[in-house]
Amino acid sequence: MQKISELAKRTRLLILDVDGVLTDGRIYITASGEEFKAFNTLDGHGLKMLQSTGVQLAIITGRAAPSVAHRARGLGIDHYYEGVHDKRTAFAELLAKTGIAAEDCAYIGDDVIDLPVMSRVGLAVAVPDAPSFVRQHAHFVTGNRGGRGAVRELCELIMQAQDNYDRVMASYLA
Predict the structure, then answer these.
(1) Distances, alpha carbon 26 to alpha carbons 2, 37, 58, 110, 155, in Å
(2) Alpha carbon of residue 88 to chain centroid
(3) Whole-model pTM above 0.90?
(4) pLDDT at 173 > cutoff 60
């Protein structure tokens, strides 16, 4: 088994699930049907830092929610797939669109719907509150929970493996 840092070093595209990864998995719905989600700002800034190193970002989510589309636009995520029931199809489309090989992708998910993509990427990541079956199929399980810094942790892991972390951090001290 390759070391996680070796797998992360290859990452050119990070693909994210939303509910349970970028959020804590809870969905708030008002009486009028409006949906609310809470996003972690540390995760968001981690994604921006990772983007600055040249790693592309994508979201593939099973739900369609205006709040997620808004968050993706705010983070500058160019590749956004919502309402996807078979994530394999969106993943194949994403690979064709970007020209990036599956082994040069990382994916972070939290449930069985994520396994078809997790089983095809070079670095499969799960959050610790994912079901054990999902965690068993991950190369790496974050220490932080979904919506609580798991994405930031992964971004920093990738930057460290690619020898970009110190440079990115130094830019905040200049």
Answers:
(1) 34, 7, 21, 13, 23
(2) 16
(3) yes
(4) yes
